[in-house]
Design goal:
Layout: E1 6-10, H1 16-25, E2 30-33, E3 36-40, H2 43-52, E4 58-67, H3 71-79, E5 93-100, H4 107-121, E6 137-144, E7 147-153, H5 175-184, E8 193-195, H6 202-212, H7 232-240, E9 253-257, H8 260-272, E10 280-283, E11 297-300, H9 312-323, E12 330-335, E13 349-356, E14 359-366
Parallel strand pairs: 5-6, 8-9, 8-11, 9-10, 11-12
Antiparallel strand pairs: 1-3, 1-4, 2-3, 4-7, 6-7, 12-14, 13-14
Helix pairs in contact: 2-7, 3-4, 5-6
């Protein structure tokens, strides 16, 4: 990369503060903004955020910004960007265009103009090296009024795709959302964790990979690995750093569900994530489950939403169990309606709120 540009770690709205804290723990100094966290695009930080962030959705590198009033002015801005750092001549380009209160509202024509301008900028002698990648480079153009910002995606697939989830139960929770809840609930390796309505096993598997010291991106690739400017030696050092287990105590991580299909999905996913030996999986209804230890964290994503009938009975049952059998445990519970908080009982505070599958949800926690 020529010079130090800015990067944006994109996150589900509502999780910006969590991501800012997580990046700080990774040694990345950033500032939360709407929809993400901005930080300097040092190559090491870009590589580290992609490999190690559990909460981010993707990482963009911002190439430049300027006021543009027409398509030709936009094309001129595009042509002066350092595309040869990020795109090989002949590599396909995918342009994502968004506009808010801008004169340039025709996405198809603007996107095509940007694609042609990038092709113009890449004309010239062929760069030494391998054949151009077949996977397209994703370029993002965002216009707010007359201000255009050009970015390139460094991630490829969304970062919640860890590479291990093939089997799914109904209404699965994304891995990065589960990670944000564990982070905000203060769960640390060594503390027992139980998910009594495990679905695809996302909470338990995410916790187990944390305990094993497995980076969330260890089993997948990234778009920046195809950049002409990739610093291979630096990327090798980033990949080899921060390895090793965090939790040597082997504290219990348990996933249960009344549905046999969910149990099978969790077992399959845990094996693919290489944590099958760290997650205890059982087919049992929550009402029949007893705490496996005196204290720990109970994390619950009850059935809810348009795909699964949601009733107050589930939260009433949860509230009774949390006050009685699980009274000594900390807890984090996802609810689709703030009115579901009351049946949970005293001591619950709002930890997070965000959209899950297009529907707003809230996370309430009892952390003491």
């Amino acid at each position: 990369m020529n010079g130090v540009r800015s990067a944006l770690a994109v996150v589900t709205p509502g999780l910006e503060a969590v991501l800012e804290e997580e990046l700080a723990l990774l040694g990345i100094e950033g500032k939360a903004t709407e929809g993400g966290v901005v930080f300097k695009a040092h190559p090491e930080w870009v590589y580290t955020a992609n490999l190690h962030s559990r909460v981010a959705a993707r990482v963009l590198v911002r190439l430049g910004s300027a006021r543009v009033r027409n398509l030709e002015a936009l094309a001129q801005l595009v042509r002066v960007m350092p595309w040869r750092d990020y795109i090989w001549p002949g590599q396909p380009v995918q342009v994502r265009f968004s506009a808010h209160q801008s004169r340039l509202r025709h996405r198809d024509s603007a996107g095509k103009k940007v694609e042609l301008a990038i092709t113009d900028a890449l004309r010239g002698p062929r760069l030494p090296g391998p054949r151009p990648p077949r996977d397209p480079a994703m370029v993002l153009v965002r216009l707010v009024e007359d201000q255009a910002t050009l970015s390139i995606d460094s991630s490829g697939d969304l970062l919640h795709r860890r590479g291990w989830r093939k089997a799914t139960a109904k209404a699965p929770l994304r891995e990065n959302l589960a990670a944000a809840i564990l982070f905000r609930a203060g769960w640390m390796p060594g503390e027992p964790l139980v998910d009594p309505m495990c679905g695809s096993g996302t909470f338990a598997i995410e916790a187990a990979t944390i305990a094993e010291g497995l980076p969330p991106g260890a089993a997948r690739g990234f778009a920046f690995e195809r950049w002409p400017s990739l610093d291979k030696a630096l990327w090798s050092r980033v990949r080899s750093a921060r390895s090793g287990r965090n939790d040597l105590s082997g504290a219990l991580i348990q996933a249960t569900d009344r549905d046999g299909g969910a149990v099978e999905a969790t077992l399959d996913n845990a094996r693919r994530a290489k944590v099958g030996n760290r997650v205890t999986v059982r087919a049992v209804a929550f009402e029949e489950l007893t705490p496996p230890a005196e204290r720990g964290l109970l994390v619950v994503n009850p059935p809810y939403g348009r795909r699964i009938a949601s009733t107050g009975k589930v939260y009433s049952m949860l509230g009774r169990a949390l006050r009685e059998e699980w009274a000594g445990w900390r807890a984090a519970v996802i609810v689709p309606d703030k009115r579901n908080r009351a049946p949970l009982g005293q001591g619950f505070e709002e930890l997070l709120s965000f959209d899950n599958g297009g529907a707003p949800v809230w996370v309430y926690g009892r952390l003491e």
